[in-house]
Write the structure tokens for this entry.
Amino acid sequence: MPGNPVLDAIRERRSIRKYQAKPIPKEVIDQLLSAAVMSPSAMHKEPWRFIVITDRKMINELSDRVKKRAGIIGHAPRFAERFTSREDTIFYGAPLLIIVIAPKENEWAHIDCGILAQTMFLAAHSLGLGSCYIGFGRMLNSDAEALKLLGIPSDMEIVAPLIFGYSSEEKPAQKRSFEDKILKRI
Ligand SMILES: Cc1cc2nc3c(=O)[nH]c(=O)nc-3n(C[C@H](O)[C@H](O)[C@H](O)COP(=O)(O)O)c2cc1C
């Protein structure tokens, strides 16, 4: 359905894993965050809090810490190369990492933050930015030093580590069908 900017953005958004080093201006980061907080949340609790990281050294340190945790926990051999590389193979060298945290005791927080992630991804797309959800980043929840470094309160946890930046890869929209996902029309 061409010509509908929302549907176009939904179709064209892809997870981006190659980024230009170019920093994202603060005003653009703030546009992303102001879009984020328009997301719906259960009982309108807005459980999300943001840790906004543009410091390359900090992102690299967090990447190294995830790799270390991943090694300890033991992952599929197909990840071995990523976990032993000295490059930032977790956050893909993205110039912006937004760690979305939420209260551990809020049973809806993961859903709320998942919806928020997609809001941010679509906003990012409309602003000419690529994005990706980095589930691996949640391994930092079991790294007490990292939680301290990031200033995450003990009653909160990392739910959605999200990266953003100007893409340096071309990823066309995919063809995906919904017909085979319908179990029943009633
Ligand atoms: C909850 C969640 C966790 C994800 N974790 C990672 C991750 O750790 N690393 C990564 O490269 N991609 C991650 N992804 C991105 C998915 O691999 C990607 O969305 C999927 O392959 C579909 O591709 P698309 O986003 O381009 O449509 C994650 C996506 C979601 C929704």
About this structure: The first helix runs from residue 5 to 12. The two ends are 25 Å apart (CA to CA).
